[in-house]
Amino acid sequence: xxxxxxxxxxxxxxxxxxxxxxxxxxxxxxxxxxxxxxxxxxxxxxxxxxxxxxxxxxxxxxxxxxxxxxxxxxxxxxxxxxxxxxxxxxxxxxxxxxxxxxxxxxxxxxxxxxxxxxxxxxxxxxxxxxxxxxxxxxxxxxxxxxxxxxxxxxxxxxxxxxxxxxxxxxxxxxxxxxxxxxxxxxxxxxxxxxxxxxxxxxxxxxxxxxxxxxxxxxxxxxxxxxxxxxxxxxxxxxxxxxxxxxxxxxxxxxxxxxxxxxxxxxxxxxxxxxxxxxxxxxxxxxxxxxxxxxxxxxxxxxxxxxxxxxxxxxxxxxxxxxxxxxxxxxxxxxxxxxxxxxxxxxxxxxxxxxxxxxxxxxxxxxxxxxxxxxxxxxxxxxxxxxxxx
Amino acid sequence: xxxxxxxxxxxxxxxxxxxxxxxxxxxxxxxxxxxxxxxxxxxxxxxxxxxxxxxxxxxxxxxxxxxxxxxxxxxxxxxxxxxxxxxxxxxxxxxxxxxxxxxxxxxxxxxxxxxxxxxxxxxxxxxxxxxxxxxxxxxxxxxxxxxxxxxxxxxxxxxxxxxxxxxxxxxxxxxxxxxxxxxxxxxxxxxxxxxxxxxxxxxxxxxxxxxxxxxxxxxxxxxxxxxxxxxxxxxxxxxxxxxxxxxxxxxxxxxxxxxxxxxxxxxxxxxxxxxxxxxxxxxxxxxxx
Lengths: 389, 289
Known about the structure:
The complex is a heterodimer.
Chain A: E1 9-12, H1 14-23, E2 31-34, H2 37-47, E3 51-55, E4 68-71, H3 74-84, E5 88-89, E6 92-93, E7 97-101, E8 107-116, E9 121-127, H4 134-140, E10 145-149, H5 158-167, H6 172-191, E11 194-205, E12 208-211, E13 215-219, H7 232-236, H8 243-250, E14 254-257, E15 262-266, H9 269-281, E16 288-291, H10 298-309, E17 316-323, H11 328-342, E18 348-354, H12 357-366, E19 370-372, H13 375-388
Parallel strand pairs in A: 15-17, 17-18, 18-19
Antiparallel strand pairs in A: 1-13, 2-7, 3-4, 3-7, 5-6, 8-9, 8-11, 9-10, 11-12, 11-13, 14-16
Chain B: E1 10-14, H1 19-31, E2 34-39, E3 47-48, E4 51-54, H2 57-64, E5 68-71, H3 75-87, E6 93-95, H4 102-115, E7 119-120, E8 126-129, E9 133-136, E10 145-152, H5 156-167, E11 172-177, H6 188-197, E12 203-209, H7 214-223, E13 231-236, H8 260-269, E14 273-274, H9 279-288
Helix pairs in contact in B: 3-4, 5-9, 7-8
């Protein structure tokens, strides 16, 4: 099974990832990022050979979506670029293209480095099934994947890389060339705090190997070591996050949009997830997941409540607070303030327990907001109110 | 490790002068935890909450003797702080810090494995031995000394279920927050092994969530007879959407793996009583005991 830590990263685009690849000595075809048909034509003329033109988007499956084209001449390249620019793929508009020399590929391999949660180590994954989604290979033909756990203390040594190459059927000079790519990719993964870096496919060409595609997803938590990437963060969420999720992110809220009509706010990821589950079991559907985290101030809670109440799909709001570092009276103040400011009449159900629970309930009850002590009862009420409103 | 923590454990707080560090030092001491000192590089010689602050762990250890450490330092410095304690043979090392880079966690766990140190977290609420020692940020009022061991990846859901356990008239022995990050020091199996030997633990509440396969591995361990006391479980995230990270870095369904259903089924197959709602865990335990 391929266990990675995907879900917590900054996704670089192919052309950006290839920049890092080059700096780490990983062979890549000649290529350039362009934003106009004219640039595509000029670069193709400069190369003087057939090219492949690929859309640059932070989503997978671009080939199937028609986002990859071939061109033999500069004019054809301009035409292809013209067709691709402005195209919509998975809700995103194509603004950037990567023009690259067309390769004569002998064989395609998969090579990736990710983090193995279970073994608490980086793992090198290589497969003869290049071009295919590795998750799919892992599910259907796991025997075609070669795995090597990288010793966190000693790192990946040359002989480890040689063995991976050997297991994939390469010997002699080809083995050494492939092993060099493995070593470089592993070095890049560690240096860049990659939660996943992938070459799919790594193309075997006449005289060696070259990265036909490139993926580099950087651990968000490590951006303090990669300041040059910090401003890329919000941009990288395009295509993954909805508009509301983007807006929430810019406000610093941990928010996931769902398709129901009951707004959910909880403190702590586990509790908030359990709140969604409880609402579901009561026959309701959550409009969102919003985790306040620990120790939220009244202002913060107010902002969160305003954000969720402001969603036109939200017909009732269910706030579930377990007081610990977060104080129930703070939650109550925030909710009351949000309601007052928005002037909305949407029903609100609050379940609170723990630190300053009494004070919190008093504030809410005085403002006419219903409070309950049981999560299940509160969920039931929220579902009923959402249906009635 | 022969024990996690108890009333005699001498606790060091790394990052004691920060707002979280200072606040929780006070609460831990109010609970009865034997906090002996704190460290913050550059702040040696100061006192906080009446406790001496040292620049280094070595100095704190020389002056007081330190058994366990709890870390509140910001993520960029957490690896350094944790390694400092690991090198000094302090055990366990509890990393409360949220947002630690995975690469740092990988290195920390490897170093800790070499020296046989137990690391709890990162991104954990910590651990508590009810009525004796609290090394964490959990609200003390929900715990009561008793017979149920609790293991959880999340924080507030763990407090929720602990509160239910107390309310039905049971109590907790030791509770361990594993942490919500993808790479953490302890998994369910490590703690179940320990609970199997712990005479004070008669049953276990296992609180899981989507992502990874730690719950499935716990189920396999229980199913194979590795843990013989009664277990009741709850798994959060049935309503979660694949591919979306639900708050915790580690809580994400990838393709078809890591779903709540898969975890619940695995646990049920192993004979674990799996609740549909968090509150059912305490009810089940009451029946099982």
